[in-house]
Amino acid sequence: MLRWSDVLKYAKYGNPEPPRRVNKTEAEWQALLTPAQFRVMRQQETEPPYRNAYCRSYEPGRYVCVGCSSLLFDSASKYHAISGWPSFSQPHAKNGIRYSFDEAHHMQRVEARCNVCDAHLGHVFPDGPELSGLRYCINSESLNRVEAEQQ
């Protein structure tokens, strides 16, 4: 189980090695993704709160990266955080997410990216539920929910 100290360590000293890498040109990403997905995943924008696909969805399944289909989160770690975006308490695997410090918009945050294709997912905060205390605040545009058997 990851904790806030682990997230900070990865952001400062280096992330775990991903299981594989997916590299595409910006033109290839633009052809693959919808305009909204491209803005979020490749240009680090944020989708509008509460008006996104998975904010209020709690169906069983797994959440994969739109860009590379890597498994990121399980619905068992999803919870209602009243943040406006889907919130998770743990990633599926320690090497699934890449962390970096983000000081954009005059804030100090930790950015969460797909460790396989480098897509911007959202941010992680230390105000989540116990046991981990983590809140992964993730843009729906970067996720696809799939049935557990499909992964």
From TrEMBL:
Keywords: Oxidoreductase. It comes from Hymenobacter koreensis. SUPFAM superfamilies: Mss4-like (SSF51316). It is an enzyme of class 1 (oxidoreductase). Coiled coil: none annotated. NCBIfam families: peptide-methionine (R)-S-oxide reductase MsrB. Residues 26-148 form the MsrB domain. This is peptide-methionine (R)-S-oxide reductase. InterPro entries: Met_Sox_Rdtase_MsrB (IPR028427), Met_Sox_Rdtase_MsrB_dom (IPR002579), Mss4-like_sf (IPR011057). The keyword Disulfide bond does not apply.
